[in-house]
Design brief:
Elements (H helix, E strand, L loop, with lengths): L5 H23 L11 H25 L4 H15 L3 E5 L2 E4 L3 H8 L1 H19 L7 H26 L5 H27 L5 H33 L4 H7 L15
Antiparallel strand pairs: 1-2
Length: 257
């Protein structure tokens, strides 16, 4: 191409790829990876990890369930499912929606949160074709396994190390933001490991877009935790007990009374 050197062609190619990925994100709808984007080894590996994680979530949740916890989990799943239907604008042509992992984790702990988000993802996949059936293991890993655990450790660490007024709000916001960004990193790695796209081509645009989405996630989660905590009658001290400094606290969580 006359007048354009190799660097110019590289810049054009990068700009075109960024545009394509922006359109891909709009079509994929957040991090719901569709079928055809992952190879067999990635599908099998993520499915196995997610199946094991769900098994552990069930075992842990059974130990901490109260009389009303199962209905509360159903209400939480319904709320997150409905909230994910509402998109908020990020930039021109791009929008995001609530992930909900930090929200469920802040109120119910990471194990119950994992089951709640898994339920939402399965319903979305089977009935709304939001995310591929073969890619369901990867989507569960990213959003129902990684995101709740990241949110848990951020909230627990901040509650343990900081004791200023409003630490709960800051912790929930930080957990929401980082859970979204981390999940996007895992999605990028899965696409790269599958050979769908080079990691250096997908990671930066994926993380930058979801860093912005994470801000919206944080603001929504902070407001939603306060509101839903009152509606479901989850006491603030019960939620704090879940995030105690003792590692054994991961066997229990806030419960509805």
């Amino acid at each position: 191409m006359p007048g354009i050197g190799h660097e110019g062609l590289a810049q054009v190619a990068c700009a075109f790829m960024a545009f394509c990925f922006q359109k891909l994100y709009e079509r994929v709808n957040f991090m719901h990876i569709p079928d055809g984007f992952l190879d067999v080894k990635t599908i099998a590996t993520t499915a196995a990890i997610s199946a094991y994680a769900i098994k552990k979530d069930v075992e842990k949740t059974r130990k901490i369930l109260g009389d009303r916890d199962i209905p509360v989990m159903g209400v939480m799943a319904a709320f997150i499912f409905a909230a994910q239907m509402v998109n908020f604008p990020i930039m021109a042509g791009t929008s995001g929606h609530l992930l909900g992992a930090a929200l469920a984790t802040a109120l119910m702990g990471p194990y119950s949160a994992g089951l709640v988000i898994t339920t939402v993802l399965i319903v979305q996949c089977i009935f709304f074709q939001d995310g591929g059936l073969l890619a369901l293991g990867a989507n569960i890993l990213n959003m129902a396994v990684v995101a709740p655990m990241v949110a848990y450790f951020i909230i627990a660490a901040m509650k343990r190390n900081f004791h200023f007024s409003g630490v709960d709000t800051v912790a929930i916001f930080a957990a929401s933001w980082l859970s979204v960004v981390t999940a996007s990193v895992f999605a990028s790695l899965e696409l790269a490991l599958s050979g769908t796209v080079a990691l250096k081509a997908v990671l930066a645009p994926m993380v930058s877009i979801h860093a912005l989405i994470g801000v919206g996630e944080g603001l929504i989660t902070v407001a939603a935790v306060a509101y839903i905590g009152k509606v479901l009658n989850i006491k603030p001290d019960e939620g704090s007990r879940y995030f105690s400094t003792d590692a054994e606290s991961m066997n229990g969580g806030g419960s509805a009374k």
